Amino acid sequence: MVQVDLNCDLGESFGNYKLGNDERILPLITSANIACGFHAGDQHVMHKTVKMAVEKGVQIGAHPGFQDLNGFGRRNMDVTPEEVYDLVIYQLGALSGFCHIYDTKIYHVKPHGALYQMGAKDPAIADAIVKAVKDFDDQLLFVGLSKSELIESCKRHGLTYKSEVFADRAYEDNGQLVSRKKEGALIKDTESAVNQVVKMVKDSKVKTINGNEISIDADTICVHGDGEHALDFVKEIISKFESEGIEIKALN
Question: What's the pTM value of the predicted model, to 2 decimals?
Fold first, then answer.
């Protein structure tokens, strides 16, 4: 039977701002990528989200990003590899503290937004992220964009990795995600998105925004829990997987 993990970015509320449907999406997924306070989240939200994940039996992952609340961590920043290394270590430490008080741990790390996208294309940024994760805990799993520089860096540094695909994002011919600034970057039709993700999992293929078919590795699928129809969309994926004989199982 084909197995795949279902992950979602959570804990992105902060202060008086409420983002996402964390309480409702947690029972549907197997891995939670928890914001660590830089692009979103704060100490109270981190605490609450870790507690909920433990109660629901969902494995916890760190979701470090750029220190850019206004841009939600989606704006590229002019940073050195040394700065990237430090910001990843800092955020892993913050989340790890809350995991410790619930006698659990961080199981994986998935960079957020622009940090993820820059690392997927730039070997120096990728190496800085991966080295930080390995130095923090070499038993952590690294989640990165399939066939990207992030995965290549994990191979270079001997860090166990899992390749990620996106249910509702379009792909370029080189395997990168289509920029959110471009028309067609987000797949809004539920049936199209579900069919795309089934093809990625079962056939290791995806049709690009240009209509070409490329190979892809799908160990874990990112679903978003903050859209208008997000919960129904995730339920639709789960139902389709059941009919296709695809088992949803946590990363490790």
Answer: 0.95
